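Session log. Operator J.P. requested a structure for one protein chain; no other inputs attached. Running the standard single-chain path with token output.
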Amino acid sequence: MRYKKLGKTGLKVSEMGFGALQFARLAPKQAVSLVKEAHDRGINLIDTAHNYPHSEHLLGKAIRGIRDQLIICTKSYHTDRKEFLNQLDSSLLRLGTDYIDIFMCHDLSRSQKYEKLVQNGVLDALLAQKKRGKIRHIGFSCHSPDIIDKYDQFPDFSAILMPVNFVSVEFTQPLVYKRLVRNHIGIMGMKPLGGGRIGDVGLALRYIQQFPQVIPVIGTECVNELDQNIKHMNDRRPMSSGDWKKIAEIRKRLGPKFCRGCRYCMPCPQGLNIYEFNFTKVYYGQLSIDQFLDPQRTRELEKLDQCTRCGRCEEKCPYNLKIMDLMRQNSDFYMQKLKQHRAN
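Structure written below.
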């Protein structure tokens, strides 16, 4: 494993980070074991968040005895000062540590939310907690580069978690990427596989290696995935004309409006699993037809009529997707495949 300095934080981090969002889909023992396997392979940067189900709690168990060898990044959604500080203390308790290496304001993609943080004293509170030693570095996670002007107004802005992949290229445009590098901001890249839409991991990571200051944070669910990701990170071949042709084909197929799987739209007031709806076509390309047409998935997608079209999911989507329409399209696609399969 190779290591890089994460911008002005000065932290020496592995060139690949470990994303702990997926812990909700793993058995507790599997999640704990996976963190230890990642550490054994040299990965020292782990990204989590207070609202990732079970993530901080399981991570706290996994890092006992090795905490001082790891760089932990976690986040809070809150714009209320009291609630924000409560989440910070809760994160410290869950993780079993007395400090967070990088603490971020979560999904700070809109200027209105930034202004709320300022008005409510959250950013001042962050600085105070840094002086107390609970936080070592302060950062922001976001899905729109337009907000970076606001970040630059905050003197202790030292790290960013942003989408970096060959489909969502907003942050790798020269004006944005070079500005972050010039200002010595530590760059962590979320969704390197496009939220699961990019199946060619090697191609995805070769693309990211064009941006040497980016540390891709990859969600991992098993040791085999972990080893494959490391193998691909060690592939130093430059991008070929064939690679660019594949990228063009994938970009054309996906288009600009697709679900990245961030789950910020959830929970649905009606209990619909929005993520499952909008990843239906991804599953179709990954699973056998019998696995795809699983009875449980059928029951879930049949619930679409319970949607009241309240629009709360669309209000929370950082990509401004027409989520309700996407759910209908994916449900119709699934029911068509189910009908065809039954007819055969």
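Operator note: The longest strand covers residues 135-141.
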